[in-house]
Amino acid sequence: MSAKTDDQSPSLRGRIKSWAKGPLFYPIAVLIGFLEGSFVLVPMEPVYIQMMVMRRKQAWLVALALLLGNVLGGLVIYWLGALLADDLLQPMISFFGAQETYDATLEKLKNNGFTTLFMIGVTPFPFQIGVAAAGAAGFSVLLFTVAVTASRSIRFLVIALLVMIVGQRAEDLLKKYDVEIFVGGLLLFAGFATYLVFFS
């Protein structure tokens, strides 16, 4: 049984490498980012890292493609939250047992929307719940897009930078230094917020 698997593995790797060299690589990266930002609820870092490793020298371009799809996916859930919160999203939130989290997020968005959205983008908080709540709360779509783009870009570009430096070992480093990366994201946000308040 194992011999058969071993025989098939090189073929599978060859197909993946061929796909990575093909013209649809970046559109597929956008699609994967879209799915993760909209309807896929599990972390997809292992997929991102493999994609970036395939094109290690252009990992930052892969990150931008994933970011574009992710923001577009977030906007879809935002509009679903704005237009169909009661009919469509409420049953889903109840099914996943996330009602308390959803209600708390709604309250935070009403009090400090931009900061809350930014934090949702850089922390393990369920992204879809946060963006759906933003739509339901009637949060500005422009500020929503800025906050989500800024926060998610940190996530994707940090992964891309790690891949460009250390390659396949990026996943292990992300797990080992997740707190440091989170703190770094907070510092970047603090600098961005300071600029908006005092210099814009």
Structural features, described:
This protein has 200 residues and is an all-alpha fold. It has one domain. It is built from nine helices and no strands. The chain is elongated.
Tell me the total number of β-strands: 0
| Low-pLDDT residue intervals, each spanning 5 or more residues | 1-10
Helix share, percent:
over 70%
The number of domains is 1
Count the helices. How many? 9
Write the H/E string, N to C. HHHHHHHHH
Rg value? 19 Å
Mean pLDDT across every amino acid position: 75
Shape, please? Answer: elongated
Major pleated sheet? none
**N-to-C span:** 64 Å
Structural class: mainly alpha
The amount of beta strand, in percent, is under 5%
Name a few traits of the molecule.
84% helix, disordered N terminus, 9 helices, mainly alpha, 200 residues
Topology:
Blueprint: H1 2-21, H2 25-38, H3 45-54, H4 59-95, H5 99-122, H6 127-136, H7 141-166, H8 170-176, H9 178-198
Question: What is shown here, in short?
Answer:
It contains 9 helices and no strands. It is mainly alpha-helical. Helix 5 (99-122) crosses helix 7.
